[in-house]
Amino acid sequence: MTKYQKQDISLTAAQQLPLPNFPKVKYASWHLDQLMPVQKAISNAHFLTAEDVGIEILGTQAGHQYLPQELINAGVLVMSIQAAKKDYPQLVQRYLSSVIPADQDRLSAQNLLQYNAGIFVYIPDNVVIQSLLQLVLVQNATTTGDAVQRILIYVGKNAQCTILQQLRTMGEATIKSSTVIEVFLDAGANVQYSAIDALSANTSGYLNRSALLADNAQLNWAQAEFNRGNMVMHLDTMLSGQGAQTHANVMAMVSQKQVQGINTRVSNRGRHTIGHILQRGVILDHAALVFNGVGNIIKGAKGADAQQESRILMLSKKARGDANPLLLIDESDVTAGHAASVGRMNAAQLYYLMSRGLCEKVARRLVIRGFMGPILAQIPHQVVRESIIEDIERQLKDAHQ
Amino acid sequence: MLDYRLRAFAAYQQMPMQTWGPDLSAIDFDEIYYYNKPTDQQYRDWDDVPIELKETFERLGVPESERKWLAGSSAQYESEVVYHRMKAEFEKTGIIFTDTDTAVQKYPDLLREYFGKIVKPTDNKLAALNAAAWSGGTFIYVPKGVHVTTPIQSYFRINTENEGQFERTLIIVDEGAHVDYVEGCSAPTYSGDALHAAVVEVIVKRDGYCRYTTIQNWSNNVYSLETKRAYALDNATMEWVDGNFGSKTTMKYPAVYLNGEGARGTMLSIAVAGQGVHLDSGAKMIHNAKNTSSSIISKSIAHDGGATDYRGTVKFGREASGAFAHVECDTIIVDDESSADTIPYNEILNGDVALEHEAKVSRVSEEQLYYLMTRGISAKKATEMIIMGFVEPFTKELPMEYAVELNRLMKFEMVGSVG
User: Where are the domains of chain A?
Assistant: First the structure.
């Protein structure tokens, strides 16, 4: 197993750590470092139904929870993080903070100290899960109280699975959200990880989703960011083992007055590692979206490949969009590149569709869907793709166009 | 002016040193000589210039160019301009080309109107220091509609240990005027570190055109920390052409504020960093008006443990409808000891704009290398050819003798580092 550093941290020490750095995003006034984690259980929510494999956490309590018998027999664990701490304390202890060091930044450290809900997934070596594994966190905004949640996923050697993780809100109260997700892929593991984050307009939050990959592990991210409030998000992938690969696909849509800052970082540490970042953003109304992509090749990572592409579509004159593609290269025997573009809707495409008899509204939607296409194509399940398209449509309808 | 210097010094003392970018903590500001006077008077004729200064310039090729075809040539040796001359026909058209110290005395009205307006002393700590301690530099005024067809040149040279050079350049291109300005910089090696903290201000008025070409070849103990900024008004064009070799640390991000409708700004740069050299350079294009356009093309080569960073900003303000920007930064990392970072910020506050950005970091392409070698060319020669091809978009924009000099510098830089 790859070596990792681990240490405990006190609340006072945590408060002295620096805030995570989101270039070009001012978020200090959101006070994300002052959390009051008093979430309650929600009695009736239903993002998952009877035949879905996975778990749903409603506020602080597990709701729907189902795992086929053969997976249970194979030693797969999918449970609330509280239950895991009680039943499998050593496993949780072993992997907690193995991806995100306890003292990395103030917000992640505070999450570690204050989380009161979450999910633990353990997939033993060589286990292949065929069905879609769903992990749903529903934040309770029916009353005030901040949501502080954590997901911890360990995927054993040569194990395989497809995950769909969702972040949702119930209720309209103004709350803060802190979600930290650690994904540990052991040698040869192969994971397809799709995420739909759709927190409410009254939620401002911090999300840190980080993965560490051992030798030859492969992780494909497909993230759909449909949060309606102010969010800062880290997607961090450390290619520690040689030959590890990741494709970090991110799409985001922002509208009204929201601000969203997304740092997508891939660190090539091992030799012959491959990290590709692909981002698409659509901005409506007065909203602001900042993509900070970082490809970081660390000294010694010979034969590494770091590529990134970020494109932003501005659908309003009042919108603000930043695409900052950074490359930090300490090794010569590598290939690295980035491309970014920001622009308005392609008029030629729009007129073409309209000349075929489509009204402008439908034509615009098709162009937007086409723009998101390269990311949508990365999402493996039809159901998930449709659910994302629904989210896009909903947000377009709500925007003041 | 004294009052201005004192206020700037007060600002300098209050401002913190910037913390981003390369490490500057090794600069000892108390150790620097803020003014060196090399000769007693200025010379109008080349024959009057002392022989040892002349030899230095002779080696740099300055007088030859002047004699042959250059519009004018001015050289700053240490803190003052010692030799300076304009061809008579240009003087007739009303072009002013002098050192900034003289300009303060002879053209106070022009100075008062523009000096320190584009780069304010409070802009950054080193700009404040320059505003307080400046001496030398070039002042150019091109009157309305006047075209200077051949380049105007200056040469800056640091020749004393622990020297600080704080030249101040101001170029005013009036409506419809056209100017092409070329400057070279160099310094021999001394054990004490030298500081070059220049401020350059350029204003290009309506329909004007200015190209500002810089080739810097500092020795490896010079900190070159510069603030270069231009305003381009309606339909004006500002072009920066920037070649960086040597220095210990360079921080330089020439900017164009596209303040008038239809203004254009371009930046074409190369940076070559060898052992002990950290070049942190880039460009800023600030689109503040409708239908403005900009282009940044940056080429860097890091070898023998050198570090090249591209750090740039493209910003589209709220008023920049119909604006367009293109950014391209390519880097070659020659060996394992070298590193290169690309840190571009693209900030867009207007939905009606277009931005394209591309960057690539790689080593010398093996395919190209093998191809040339199969044609019987040695590995060393082949690498040189590939690198020359890589920087060609830059060299072809230079005046001929600078292109020749650049090619020579490139070869000199790369000796022993490749092949």
Answer: 11-345
